[in-house]
Specification:
Helix content is 7%, strand content 64%. The protein contains 1 helix and 12 strands, in the order αββββββββββββ.
Length: 254
């Protein structure tokens, strides 16, 4: 059963990244629909990001990755390479109205361009993606096994006033896959680097579609070189009942 074991592994992964990298690093950007985003500080540093989320009926997501500037560029200003691994679980209704549990793990290796100024930043990335999908029980007509794709993602953040910013991303796995994810956050400064506000997300693939609405708090310092964020709210799948969700995200620069 893909339930408590996967969620425990998600939490353990994020805690390991926090204590291994949190003493040396500082967040800049994101990798996926669940990953942290913050204004880049251009430099030659590399960055580690990790995030996890769980809630509802067998719904969980975890990711971790590395972002590094390419020669002649700086993080947040120029060309970057990104390598990420992720794991996803979800439940959907298949043939004969049976409930199907899905477990997908894989990753991506993308190259992209970032730019930033005093008001915000943006990035656009593309590259190959891979996912191995297991279904239990098998669902006729659904893809499973090794799935290769082309991954594209656009993300960014903009201060509209000194204390209010919009943060968003949109991405998709195309060419042999149909995964997609979008997220928008409207954040107000609470204190210092800490922002809080509502978030909305729409995501899915060939088997399921879901939306989330909730609240996020980001920019909380673990150290002067590492920050965490938390989010939570309500999630509703296309053919599943609604339920709560909660997540944790970390960015670390070294």
């Amino acid at each position: 059963m893909i339930t408590l074991f996967t969620r425990a592994r998600t939490i353990a992964l994020i805690l390991a990244i926090m204590f291994a990298g949190g003493a040396q690093a500082q967040p800049v950007t994101a990798s996926s629909a669940a990953a942290p985003q913050a204004k880049p500080q251009p430099g030659n540093d590399w960055m580690v990001v990790a995030a996890g989320q769980a809630g509802g009926k067998n719904n969980s997501y975890s990711t971790m990755g590395l972002v590094a500037p390419l020669p002649g560029s700086k993080l947040g200003k120029g060309w970057v390479a990104r390598v990420f691994a992720d794991e996803l679980t979800y439940r959907f209704k298949g043939a004969a109205n049976r409930e199907i549990d899905a477990l997908a793990f894989g990753g991506s290796a993308t190259v992209g361009f970032m730019d930033s100024d005093e008001k915000g930043w943006w990035g656009l990335y593309a590259g190959p993606g891979y996912r191995h999908l297991d279904l239990s029980p098998n669902n006729p007509g659904s893809k499973r096994g090794n799935i290769y794709s082309a991954r594209v993602q656009l993300e960014g953040e903009r201060l509209l006033t000194d204390d209010f910013k919009l943060n968003g991303l949109a991405g998709a796995d195309i060419a042999n896959n149909t995964g997609y994810w979008t997220r928008l956050r409207a954040m107000h400064r609470v204190e210092g680097d800490i922002f809080a506000g509502p978030e909305g997300m729409w995501l899915g693939d060939q088997n399921y579609h879901a939306y989330q609405v909730g609240m996020a708090i980001v920019g909380m310092h673990l150290t002067d070189k590492a920050q965490i964020g938390i989010n939570g709210g309500y999630r509703k799948g296309e053919d599943q009942g609604g339920a709560g969700y909660g997540g944790l995200e970390l960015g670390a620069r070294f």
